[in-house]
Amino acid sequence: MSDLYIAPDNQPRCKWVGVTEEFIAYHDAEWGFPVVDDIRLFEKLCLESFQSGLSWRTILAKRENFRAAFAGFDFNQVAQFDESDKQRLLQDAGIVRHKGKIEAVLNNAKMAQKLVEEFGSLAAYFWRFEVDTSESGAPQTRSTCAESVALSKELKKRGWKFVGPTTVFAFMQAMGLINDHAEGCVSRSIVADARSRFTSPVKG
């Protein structure tokens, strides 16, 4: 039970949820469920890059501000951002004003467009790196995996920035490319069921 947090409803959840009750809704409704929406995939990878060196609590609290600042993370719009947009973002107290990370989002939006041109969607590309949970070992015992290392390497080759293997692994955990809910967590079986009914966008 050391890997679990007993929430106010007396249901066991992943231990990290115990940091703040604000995490419960995110954990129960979002974390680990398979996602194919390109905007959500792009948003999450961007937010994970902003989290680097910070806590997810900080980023989650600012998520709506990030969405407002970055055009809802519509990468086709973000790809058109210019120097004036970058300066606006650097002055926006509602987000994390890290120049390198802001520049990475603007850069990665253009890279996302290229992936869509090549694969048809971001989902079709990212889901090539799905992790077989039955072979992935004990959940929440690592910060990277072979698939996150491979995806990170490929993204960097394609010109993406702030996409190290740890950042990419956190993205994969959240977007359902692996079911990393702790054993005994109330959401683990729910996510497993969602993944079993999920139709992968990978073609061929």
TrEMBL record:
In the UniProt record, does the keyword Metal-binding occur? yes
Q: Which residues form a coiled coil?
A: none
Residues that coordinate or bind Zn(2+): C14, H27, H181, C185
Pfam families linked: Adenine_glyco
Q: List the GO molecular function terms.
A: DNA-3-methyladenine glycosylase activity; metal ion binding
Which UniProt keywords are present, listed alphabetically? Metal-binding, Zinc
One GO BP: base-excision repair
Protein name per UniProt? DNA-3-methyladenine glycosylase I
Supply the source organism for this entry. Neptunicella marina
